[in-house]
Structures are given as C-alpha cells and as structure tokens.
Specification:
516 residues; alpha/beta; TIM Barrel; Double Stranded RNA Binding Domain; eight-stranded parallel barrel; three-stranded antiparallel sheet; 42% helix; binds 3-methyl-2-oxobutanoic acid; binds zinc ion
C-alpha cells in the first residue's frame, strides 16, 4: 500500500508555542517515545534560535538518531548560510539527518517582514538548498505562507529549489487560512506545475489550525497526492496549533477504504505518547479531543451504552486498544517489588534503570501506602511526574496547611535546595493560595497563576490528583504539572515544577523569538 511519511514537529513547531517549552532532557524523553511510535521524521528543533535549542537538537540526533532503525532527525533553518551551518552541526550525528530550510514567498511577508524582492528571495532559497546539499542528501524546503503566496511565483521558487537539490517540498499553510477543497486543488496544481520533476521530490504539507481545518486540509492534500504530512502530538503548536498526528494517522487507518494509503506509525503507542507530552508540558488534553481525549471512547448516552454492550461496532469505529489506551486494570500492589514495577513500566513505555528507577520505586511505594489499588494510569502519573521533576532546583520537603470554614487558610512549606532546607509560612484566600505564598516567600520569586487545572488520573475517591498550572514569573510564562493523592500537595508540586523549569532555563523567555 502507498505510504504517507509522518513528519513529527512536536519538538519544533509544537514546542515553539508559549507554555509548551521543553528542555533538553524532556525533548529526549519525547524523542525516544516518538521513535517507539515509529514516526518517519522527528523535527527536533531550530538550532539557530538559541543555544538550548541547538543542544537539544544535537542530543536528539546523538542519542535517538543513532539507534537502530531510528527516524530521520531533522533541524529547521532559515535560508541564511550561517543558519544552515549551525543546523548541520546539530543534526549531523544522526544516522539519517535532514536539513529543513524555509523562506516566506507571500508578498505580505516579503514586503513587511523580509523587505526583499521576489528575485532576492528566489536566489536566497536556491543558494540555501545548494549549500545544505553540500552537507547532506536529505534537504527539505518550505515556502512559508504558501497558502497566501502568488501561485506562479511560489512555483518558480519550488522549481529552482528542486533544481538545486531539495528532495522534500513542504507546502505550509502557515496562518491556517486554507479550506480543504481549495487546499487540495492547490496541491494538485503544484504537482502539475512541477511535472518535469516528478519522481524527484516528495510533496509534503504543513497545516496550522487557525480555522480548525488543519487535519482536514492535510487529508485533502493526501487525496491529491501529498505523501508527507507534518504534524504534532495532541495538535500542539503556534496559536491554534498544528495538524494533530493521532487524528491523521487514525483517519488514514480507519478509512483505508477511502484513502488507500497508510503510515508506519505504531498506533498502539499513540495514547502513551499523548500522555507523556501532556505530563512533560503540564498541559492537559481537552476531554473531547478526538482519539486521545478522556471522553474519546466514553459512551454516556443510555442508547449508545446499550448498543455498545450488544455489539461494539454499533458506536465504535476504533477500539481503545488500537491506540494503546490502558484498560485501567489493577497492576501492582503494596507488596510488589522493583522488578515487577520495572517490567510494568517497560510495558507502559518507560525504560527506567538506576537512580530513575529508584525514584520511581519510592514514589510507587509511597502511593501504594496511601492508595489501595494502583492502576496503569496512576503509574504513568507518578512516573512522568518523577521523570519530569528530575534535576529539580527546589524539592518539596514538608507541607502543612490549615483550611476550612471560619479559619484563615495558612500553610507552612519547607523546600530543599542545594542540600539546605528553607521554611516559610503564608496565608491566602484558600489552601492553594496559602501554599504558593509560602513557596514565593522562600524563593523570593513571585509567580502569577494564569491557569490551574485539576483532574483525577483514574476513577475512585482515592484517585491521584493531577494538577497542571501555567505561571507568569515576571513576564516569563512557564507550565508545570504535579501529581499526588493530596490535591494541595499536587498543586505545590505543579507550581514547583514550573519554578524549577524557570530556574533551569536561567529565567529566559519561554517562547522563542527568532527574526525572519
Ligand atoms: O508554519 C510554517 O510555515 C512553518 C514552516 C517553518 C514550515 O512552521
Ligand atoms: Zn508551522
């Protein structure tokens, strides 16, 4: 069957969006999981944008791109030759490396952003591709803002870059402006215009979701012959996000009859990948999100439940197990040992050993003491919590609070940093406010809580509470997540994980700003 290349840009376009920033360790964790998911290409970063992004891209190339059967590791680069050199420096370690270079081709971008003529941009694009080809065979080119570009001019640029050696031509709907039928027609027309190069390049699309059409546009492009789609896990990305990987993959699989194409993605890794991203970034998936949302497979209406009980096919077009959704079965108990935990975690996609496994085991024992039944979802919550809290600057040592009707909520918090303990108290209009005030008093950094979301990892009154926060630390917006059976402790841990991220990033802005 004809195959569509899945180009995952969670670690680049996804990560670029405010609140989704990831450090090197977190990107590596995600990249390993993307490799298990079996995507074809991982766009690991935009190396020129910052030293952190360079380092993260290089580490993904070194540690994931060198594995047997690893995906292609790609870096993004503007058309400046120095940018391309830097990009190559980062990706060159991978067995299969790709340079993805782009420049805007719409008159709006040329006039207001680049302040360059059409001829200048065409020349820069051609030179950039030629320069990149001197480093590697696998070069991708994107005409940014393609959906608003003059068609003939854009095709002249594409013609020139294919001549210069680009082997993937990616057409981005940068501002999410396109509508499926029109987009599909544009994709068909591009192939007609480039007919003399047929067979020498792979046509790709990269759709943003501003009008909610990203997945529909991607599918429409596939129908018209595109054979690579650029997408992200959970559809994260600039503004309204990018096309969602899981929706595209499952649409192609479920409607094979219609599309007649498939991907190499191991769909049973989808749920785990989605949850890992959500744990790492601290951003919950909306409950009604297609494929991976909490309700995506829940049948509430009586008539639906009745139908599903009689025959699943009545209301289910996919099975939860197709995307690896855990059945919430009881897995481990208080007396389970390290080996049992390690084995179960491996099944869940976490290959832990040494100190990482020690930390996970301690967290598991603490949980098993507090909670009688430990489910897969619980394990995923505590382990991703531990993994993402690693390298913490501040660790929670002690927490006590008083709250209730008729009392002023107050809290005492003890934190550990560099081997020393610090204790402070705070009051607030509720226990969370009081705990965060005590943390602020210790760290001397005042955070403004922009968003706070609490959800139970599983059913049951003794469920683990997962808290996701978005905090503004003096203009820098950082996300964090914490888990505990005590929701006040989970809130403190989420706030601390955001703070730790801020500290690790040296207080830099989270959203990267790179000029044209
Ligand atoms: O949206 C966009 O145009 C991009 C390009 C760099 C491909 O992300
Ligand atoms: Zn984009």
């Amino acid at each position: 069957m004809d195959r569509v290349v899945i180009f995952d840009t969670t670690l680049r376009d996804g990560e670029q969006a405010p609140g989704f920033s990831m450090n090197t360790m977190e990107k590596l964790e995600m990249a390993r999981q993307l490799a298990r998911l079996n995507v074809d290409v991982i766009e690991a970063g935009f190396p020129i944008s910052s030293d952190e992004d360079f380092e993260a891209t290089r580490e993904v190339a070194r540690q994931v791109g060198t594995l047997e059967g690893a995906p292609v590791i790609c870096g993004l680069s503007r058309v400046g030759l120095g940018d391309i050199d830097r990009c190559w420096e980062a990706v060159k370690y991978a067995r299969r490396a790709r340079i993805h270079t782009f420049v805007a081709t719409s008159d709006i971008h040329l006039k207001y952003k680049l302040r360059k003529s059409r001829a200048e941009v065409l020349k820069a694009a051609e030179e950039a591709v030629r320069h990149a080809r001197a480093y590697c065979e696998d070069v991708e080119f994107s005409p940014e803002d393609a959906s608003r570009s003059d068609f003939d001019y854009m095709c002249d640029v594409l013609d020139a870059v294919i001549g210069a050696g680009a082997r993937t031509i990616n057409i981005p709907d940068t501002v999410g402006y396109a509508i499926p039928r029109e987009w599909g027609e544009r994709i068909a027309r591009i192939q007609e215009r480039l007919a003399r190069h047929a067979g020498r390049y792979v046509l790709s699309v990269h759709c943003h979701n501003d009008l909610g059409q990203a997945v529909a546009n991607s599918l429409s492009a596939i129908v018209q012959g595109a054979r690579q789609v650029e997408c992200t896990i959970n559809g994260i990305g600039e503004r309204a996000g990018n096309a969602s990987l899981e929706e595209i993959v499952m649409a192609l699989r479920t409607r094979k009859d219609l599309f007649g194409v498939d991907t190499r993605v191991r769909s049973e890794e989808i749920f785990r990948t989605s949850r890992l991203l959500s744990h790492i970034t601290g951003v919950h998936v909306q409950p009604n999100k297609a494929i991976v949302g909490e309700n995506a497979f829940a049948h509430e209406a009586g008539i639906h439940q009745d139908g599903v009980l009689k025959e699943k096919l009545t209301y289910e077009i996919m099975r939860p197990e197709d995307i690896g959704r855990p059945s919430n079965k009881l897995v481990l108990g208080k007396h389970s040992g390290r080996h049992a935990l390690a084995a179960r975690l491996k099944d869940l996609g976490f290959d832990l050993a040494g100190p990482d496994l020690d930390r996970a085991f301690k967290a598991f024992k603490d949980l098993a003491d507090r909670k009688k039944e430990v489910y897969d979802e619980d394990l995923m919550a505590i382990v991703t919590d531990e993994v993402t809290q690693a390298e913490a600057a501040y660790e929670l040592e002690y927490l006590h609070f008083i709250s209730g009707t008729g009392v002023v909520p107050s809290a005492t918090v003890k934190l550990r940093r560099d081997g020393a303990s610090f204790q402070e108290s705070g009051v607030g209009d509720g226990p969370v406010d009081a705990v965060l005030a005590a943390i602020d008093a210790i760290t001397g950094v005042k955070g403004r809580l922009l968003d706070f979301a609490l959800r139970a990892a599983t059913g049951g009154k003794d469920a683990i509470g997962e808290v996701a926060v978005k905090v503004d630390f003096d203009g820098t917006v950082v996300s964090g997540k914490g888990a505990s059976t005590d929701v006040i402790e989970a809130s403190a841990r989420a706030y601390l994980s955001a703070l730790n991220r801020l500290v690790r990033q040296g207080g830099q802005r989270v959203s990267k700003e790179v000029g044209p």
